[in-house]
Amino acid sequence: MHKHAWQFFRAGGVDQVAIRTGEDIARIGELDQTLWVALACPTRGIEFDSATLDLIDHDKDGRIRAPELVAACEWAVAQVNDPDVLTSGSDVLQLASLRTDTDEGAALRAEAERILRWAEREGEDGLTLAEVQKRLAALNAMPFNGDGLLNPKTLSEAPELIELVDRIMALYGSAEGVDGQPGMALAALDAFFADVRAIQAWHDQALDHACVLTQREQAMAAAQALNAVQEKIEDFFARTRLAAFDATALVPLSPSVEGYAALGQDLLSSSSESIAALPLASVVAGGELPLAHNLNPAWSEAMQAFRLHVVQPLLGADRQSLSAAQWQALQAQLAPCQAWLAAYPGSVLGDMSPAQAQALLEGGAQARLQELIARDEEEKQHNQHAVQLEKLIRYQRDLLKLLNNFVNFADFYRREGAAFQAGTLYLDGRSCELTVDVTDAAAHAKLAGLAKVYLAYCDCRRNGVKRSIVAAFTAGDVDFLLVGRNGLFYDREGKDWDATISKIIENPTSIGQAFSAPYKKFLRMIEEQVAKRAAAQDSGVTAGLSTQAQALVNTPATAAAAPVPGLRKTDVGTVAAIGVALGSLSAVAVGIFGKFIELGPWIPIALLGMIVAISGPSMLIAWLKLRQRSLGPILDASGWAINGRMKINLRLGRSLSQTAKVPVQASRLMHDPYADSSAWVWWAGAGLLALAIGVLAWRLQWIEPLLPAAWKAAPAVTVPAVAAPAPAAPAPVPVPGTPIP
């Protein structure tokens, strides 16, 4: 077999395979899965027909994996003559496209023709998905719909068996039919009658056991009565034998006065456990067990049944007590009866009389119900073929679209609405198209944060229904995106939901936004500090005025002229100190400005250096994060298994988050009657700019050639250097004896 020539396209920084033809679909299993964009996706939480996804999800675990998708493609290709029909995206299946050279294809063709006859369109070619679904609904509503179950609600042909079917379903469970209703399966029917036969066989064994009581009912009653009191009677005779062995044991083996006193503190009844724990009768060394009187009241009814069904048939009706030897003989005689009773088949049927078992087995109910189930299963094959036709039509309509949202993300990069996109969020003057449904925002954020994308988790509400989404803001300013802000979310069906931001993961959206971020942070910090200082000052002033007002109110009239304590005149030293501080700050500012002016032609470079120093780190971090921005972690956190690195570059990001723009054809009236007057700001800014330019031009002597001669600065006068006088000769030192001139 020749190798298929695949075609690839570049999108999201990944080479993605193009799937366009039926041959591409037929050969999808040959494509190396390392080239697949995704290897698994959930069947819920994505914008795709969940019924189609459930058909592909073979193991019904709520996820579609690559092998399941390959198997779906191979099955669909095997049912048609030309795989190109699987690229039509139509929900109308042409019967001519079905294969007839295979058993399965021929069966599907026959079933399609049968459905067309049922729809009164015999001889026509196109079979629609709606017609197949309508036929399945009609089949499911019939008493015999091919699911192999008997629904008592639709069992009109055997109404006398409805009660029995309900009983079997209640005891042995039910299964859900294709109509969504519970029904009785053949396995439950067989299990019920198997237990009935076991009970009937057990009743028949009563005639063969070696029990002294030959009648089945007597033997059963005697064994049951003996089982009820056997341990208690054995306890009584064990106490009497021990008392006969040693008389000193009689008192400890009998209830004490203290025990009865403690027992008397409780609210008593004949069925109390504390009374039932006492001996069956008063213990006497070697004594007999009374059968009618002086018995523990908690055991009186059980002993009465023991006397009636065991003692009287075997020892006589006048027996009033029972000795230890008689007790042993009774146990030996009834041991076979007890063994037979213990062999009663354990089942959910419980006790069943032989008459009831015989009526069920001889009434023919089992054969009648088996016949009805067999009749129902005759329709099973037609039902299965109809289900296969629905499956094939769904694959013809949806398979190519699913491949373009799984093997590649062509629909996403073509902006045609990918399966994982939940809708569009409108908030803060922009629309965000990259929105994904989430079930647990906290768990989703742990992995989605690795996408390096600015994410806003939103709680959405509509008519009492709630859902959660995460929206990616990939362009525009994010200064006013805050938790609690409200927006409007439109799902893929166009329904509007109220959306409120509940959680934010911050990341840069563009280089420009990162450039201005440090300045905005600095301004916000100044505003916050000013606000804090102003609030503190306002609080102090308010407290001081309150104190002074209270002092004035509490001061007597005679002392009104007295100075209020704590008030003092303006401190001249403080004012002087403030003036000195302001002067120092002004001097520093002037000095810095002067040094800056002295840079001359290097001023633009200095300004650029300052900007780079302030905004450079923020822009560098933003650039690094924007290069790492990826779609993969967002989808991985939602249950996908993304195999490729799906990058979101700046161009794609700008297309996913559209900011508000006035239409090109619209006309604009620029006059705003409510705009704040800001003319003085512009004039002040222009004046400062002109002053700075003038000072700079003066310092650099740029305007010197343009000035009149009278305004030009006088040239500097060069003063010639004056030679310094030679040093005078030293005066002669007089020699002694020499006349002075």
Write the layout of secondary structure elements.
Layout: E1 8-11, E2 14-17, H1 22-26, E3 38-42, H2 50-56, E4 63-65, H3 66-78, E5 92-94, H4 103-118, E6 126-128, H5 129-141, H6 162-172, E7 175-176, E8 182-183, H7 186-204, H8 216-245, H9 250-253, H10 257-263, H11 273-276, E9 289-290, H12 300-315, E10 321-322, H13 324-342, H14 354-362, H15 365-378, H16 380-403, H17 410-413, E11 423-427, E12 430-432, E13 435-438, H18 441-448, E14 454-462, E15 465-473, E16 486-491, E17 496-505, H19 511-554, H20 572-598, H21 603-628, H22 632-636, E18 641-642, H23 650-656, E19 657-659, H24 679-700
Antiparallel strand pairs: 1-2, 3-4, 3-18, 5-6, 7-8, 9-10, 11-12, 11-16, 12-19, 13-15, 14-15, 14-17, 16-17
Helix pairs in contact: 3-16, 4-16, 5-16, 6-7, 7-14, 7-15, 8-12, 8-13, 19-21
Short characterization:
With 741 residues, the chain is α+β, with helices and mostly antiparallel strands. The protein contains 24 helices and 19 strands.
How many strands appear in the DSSP assignment? 19
Helix/strand structural class: alpha+beta
How many strands, which pairing sense, and closed or not: the largest β-sheet? 8 strands, antiparallel
- Overall spatial form: flat
Low-confidence stretches: 566-570, 735-741
Write down the overall mean pLDDT: 83
- Strand neighbour order, sheet with most strands: 13-15-14-17-16-11-12-19
